[in-house]
Amino acid sequence: MLLEIDGLNSHYGRIHALKSASLSVREGELVALVGANGAGKTTLLRTLSGVHPASSGRITFDGCDITRMKASRRVAEGVVQVPEGRQLFGPQSVEDNLRLGAYRRGSGKPDDDIERLYEMFPVLKVKRDQPAGTLSGGQQQIVALARALMAKPRLLLLDEPSMGLAPLLVAEIFDAVQLLKREGTTILLVEQNAHAALAIADRGYVIETGEIVLSDSGAALLSNERVRQAYLGL
């Protein structure tokens, strides 16, 4: 198992945001975490990446306890997050944003990886010299995704990649996520668009008010009556 979370708790002051959450991700899997706004999805990713501290519980990555490890070291170990809202360096060019993604990695030539990403996402090559903040929302999300790939992630944490995007752009983003999966990238996808996420996931978890309440294959959760009523509007 590449990632194991066992009894993870996290707080914002007195607010108990994560309540004994447990989940796992195998190498090469795409696992979706779905739930309503405020359910704890982003908190779980932030705690995994080290941006927010765990109150108790254990995070194990490739057999190593990383629960108290600094966020910067987690990136170097291969745990890389694409944050909600993209958080690009807007005045900097697309290519500069990509190069910044390689800051913490240990090996390899950034130029080679940039060219590979330009082949994977041709729009980035077209826009390479443009300030990242001038791109459309969908293009900015591709930049944020590619920036994370520059860090050579062993586990890619995707936080709400479809947020604020038009339906056509959402389809493009999920096509990109599926492409990464086919290339062998291990992905933990947090997404409010439960249908889109579960449709491409090997397995999924449902989180409600900080607690994991359901887990199954993506297909099984899509057909689960409780999930259909609560998250798919069916």
From TrEMBL:
UniProt KW Transport keyword: yes
Q: Which domain of life is it from?
A: Bacteria
Q: Which Pfam families match?
A: ABC_tran
* GO terms of biological process kind: L-amino acid transport
Q: Mind listing the UniProt keywords for this protein, alphabetically?
A: Amino-acid transport, ATP-binding, Nucleotide-binding, Transport
**What SMART domains is this protein classified in?**
AAA
ABC transporter domain location is 3-234
Q: For this protein, what is any one GO molecular function term?
A: ATP binding
Instruction: Enumerate the PANTHER family for this protein.
Output: HIGH-AFFINITY BRANCHED-CHAIN AMINO ACID TRANSPORT ATP-BINDING PROTEIN LIVF
Q: Which family does it belong to?
A: Belongs to the ABC transporter superfamily.
Name the UniProt record assigns to this protein: Branched-chain amino acid ABC transporter, ATP-binding (LivF-like)
